Amino acid sequence: MELDLNLGQYLLIGALGLVxxxxxxxxxxxxxxxxxxxxxxxxxxxxxxxxxxxxVFMQSVSGVFGFHKAKRLPTEDLPAIIWPTxxxxxxxxxxxSFAPVAVLKPLLLLTMLGVAAxxxxxxxxxxxxxxxxxxRVADRPNxxxxxxxxxxxxxxxxxxxxxxxxxxxxxxxxxxxxxxNALKVCCTLGFTLVALAIFISRGQVMWDVGLVLAVCSxxxxxxxxxxxxxxxxxxxxxxxFVMTLVAVVLALFG
Length: 254
Prior knowledge:
Number of domains: 1
Shape: globular
Subcellular location: Cell membrane
Structural class: mainly alpha
Main location: membrane
Membrane topology: Multi-pass membrane protein
Distance between the termini: 23 Å
Number of strands: 0
Pfam families: TauE
Protein name: Probable membrane transporter protein
Radius of gyration: 17 Å
């Protein structure tokens, strides 16, 4: 796709990618900043959706390494957590990739708004357990179904996926919020890899914009991990709630 963006637009995209990388390591909602801006710049919804995944993929790689290095990434049940989101991601990405462009933009925005509002106005979804052992996916089958559904959403639109992944990981599976964030990034890496492969095969990626997002988002993710592991649990919860409210506003007026 041929689209002439000026230097200022690239700089704004890079800055948003940096911010998105930071906040996605602590809470979520980074794509709510990026997707509306890409579409405002004239990038069609399907191309914007695919291009955004390049940045998400690289920030996820950076984040996974960061959490692992800090020894905050639990690996005991990791395959059982990741594969359902990858299956869901495949389904969601196929739906998004083949959806008519004329209906995809409002559908993306409405979906972003609905998920963000659900979490913002249902505080119980943000509750996580303290001082208890995590539960294995095999011991809680409804968690596997929830992970598949979240993966479908993530494959379809990506924006605000963290807001519904964290209640599954922290609420259903009882990980503390820092480790739940680390697992969230792993899941995001898994379903984004599947989704990005589909969008690339369909020619729905603007590589110049995607590479700007990739570099800046990866840097932001490194900063975000360092910040997340230092913050208190309650502070992370407050950041998550604030970002949910921001996501509602951006999805509503984006």
